[in-house]
Design goal:
Largest sheet: 6 strands, mixed
Distance between the termini: 18 Å
Strand order of the largest sheet: 4-7-8-9-10-11
Strand content: 25-35%
Low-confidence stretches: none
Oligomer: single chain
Number of strands: 13
């Protein structure tokens, strides 16, 4: 089984600026790195083959829909987003409306995106503790612009649906999950994810 993220705590006197953290991630581009609001750095282990395949299935289904819909763009798990709390996160799969994306300068689009996506997905690894993932989803839902989030728990065949300002909803072993009004017409086929 894969291990939990390695959490690196940096002394206050050695804290990195946003630019330094971006550079740190670039020189360590083979690592999946996030930073929470307390400036603790998490280095996530690579996923196993099954999880990588299931994550790719989610991204692929979203990409096919997004190409037809043409109102937004998709991002993979290597994309960094700057949260209003100062945290830097990389959801497994995400989507943002073009109108929001196009407001960013070319430089902002090249670095960690200073806007959080409209739609985010996190896929629970079989070895992941559920509580930190739920806390991460709740953190996402407090961000301006985010409208819908899915936390997919393959271990128990559950999908937790997050919307800003309302309690999470849990679906037990759904065959499909709708993108609702945020992604009209998008339906995630869960048989490709379980």
């Amino acid at each position: 089984m894969l291990s939990s993220p390695l959490v690196v705590q940096i002394p206050p006197s050695m804290q990195m600026t946003d630019e330094q953290f971006f550079d740190f991630c670039q020189v360590n581009r083979d690592l999946r790195i996030e930073r929470n609001q307390f400036r603790e750095i998490s280095i996530m282990p690579p996923t196993g083959g099954k999880t990588g395949n299931h994550n790719f299935s989610i991204a692929g289904q979203l990409y096919v829909w997004a190409e037809k819909d043409a109102t937004g763009i998709c991002f993979d798990s290597s994309t960094g987003f700057k949260l209003s709390t100062g945290a830097d996160r990389s959801p497994d799969v995400s989507w943002m409306k073009l109108e929001r994306w196009n407001r960013l300068s070319a430089e902002q689009q090249e670095k960690f995106v200073p806007l959080f996506p409209d739609f985010v997905v996190e896929l629970r690894l079989l070895s992941d503790n559920l509580k930190p993932l739920k806390e991460k989803m709740e953190e996402y839902m407090r961000e301006p612009g985010v409208q819908l989030g899915l936390l997919i728990d393959r271990k128990h065949h559950r999908v937790y649906i997050y919307r800003p300002g309302v309690p999470e909803e849990c679906l037990e072993n759904p065959a499909t999950v709708s993108g609702e009004l945020v992604l009209p017409g998008f339906v995630l086929n869960m048989s490709k994810v379980w």
